[in-house]
Amino acid sequence: MRIKLHIVCFLLLLVGWAGKVNAQNISIYAGRSTSLYDGRFYPALFGEKVIPAFVTLDAKIGWADNSSSPFASLCKHPEVGIGFQFDGLRGVKAVNGPGMGNIYSLYGYFDRPVLQFGGFSLGYSVEMGLGFMFNRRYDPVKNPWNVLISSPVNAHISLGIQAQYAFLKRYDVGLGFFFNHHSNGAITFPNYGINSFELALRVGMKTSRSKEDKVLEPEDDGFRRRFQFAVQVSGGIMSNEANYFKRLEEDGTWVNDRYSKFSFQANALYRYHRTQASGLGFDLFVTPFYEKIAESDGQGLKYDPVSCGIALLHEMSYRDFSVMVGLGYYLHHNDGLEQPQVLYQHITVKYYFPKLADMYLGIVMKAHRFRAAESVQLCVGKRF
């Protein structure tokens, strides 16, 4: 009851703050999420044929891009802003222990309408931020059954589609369907993560608009179709999963030894639209602790420090911000991580600095099987 009261107070403060900073839109979502079935821990965690469902609550404050940027006009004046999400996982019980704790997420979002007619609109939403779990995390003694979340801070990623209808000048209602993911990117094990589908009802309110909020005519920035090339280096830290399981099995201790992980990428994209580009990339992955993996997994195999692959890439841009997704095929892969896998996936969120010769900074998350995060790295690159 105390937690629910805190959430209500926080939402009221958020709405009050939105008014002070002249936010144009305030939205509240209330819904229900259903966890995706995953054979790695079902049914041992929750029970035979049990797929948990839990309550979700979101509050968003945003600003519509009504500027003269051609991006604003092409994307039908999308909304950007910040949001808060509550995932009520505390009520999800494990068969042999207390189970999960609630997740509280803060994130930035991008909502773009695709179809608009009359008061109706249909579009998509992208959210990226951090999720926090303050209690009921994994503990080998107190809560050994929560193999999904073991760190207090995790990544929050959400992709969704949403429809809404403006029934009054300043108010609208709608329905959203989202895929939500929480994971720490293999920085701490266990790290199975949480994947869920969320169905939510939305109530939105538009605040009074100022003269500056008026939609401006788009300017021509001289866009032309062209090839673009880029090189990128990235690095981060990750745990040795093999050593984690070895220590857990031998003496029951929860040990996460962390090591460096590096990557290099060269790509060629064809930009056929201001917001869209597609192409190919060559990836080189360096795992300096490959010998430690061999020592820990007990299979008697020899691994290599370098893996490489080629990936299909697609980049979606808005102004100087972009999200690039890649589906890769290993040309060589023998580093001991996620063996044997021939496919890999990565998503890169980056921000370009045109005044610095199109240099960019970003975050890269690499995964296998479209669900198991291998690593999270910071990247720096240059576009030509």
Which key terms come to mind for this protein?
384 residues, Porin, 2 domains, 8-stranded antiparallel β-barrel, 4 helices, flat
Number of helices: 4
Radius of gyration, CA atoms, in whole angstroms: 22 Å
Determine the strand fraction and express it as a percent band: over 45%
Please give the CATH architecture of the largest domain. Beta Barrel
Query: What's the average pLDDT?
Result: 87
Number of strands: 16
Class from helix and strand fractions = mainly beta
Strand order of the largest sheet: 1-2-3-4-5-6-7-8
CATH fold title of the largest domain: Porin
Give an overview in words.
The structure is a single chain. With 384 residues, the chain is mainly beta. The protein folds into two domains: 2-213, Porin (Beta Barrel), CATH 2.40.160; 226-383, Beta Barrel (Porin). 11% of the residues lie in helices and 51% in strands. The protein has four helices and 16 strands. It has helices at residues 2-20, 70-74, 241-251, 290-297; strands at residues 25-35, 53-64, 79-87, 103-117, 120-132, 153-166, 171-183, 194-206, 226-239, 258-271, 276-286, 306-318, 321-332, 343-353, 359-368, 372-383. The strands form two sheets. It has an eight-stranded antiparallel barrel. Strand 15 and strand 16 form a beta hairpin. The longest helix has 19 residues, at 2-20. The chain is flat and about 65 Å long. The relative contact order is 0.11.
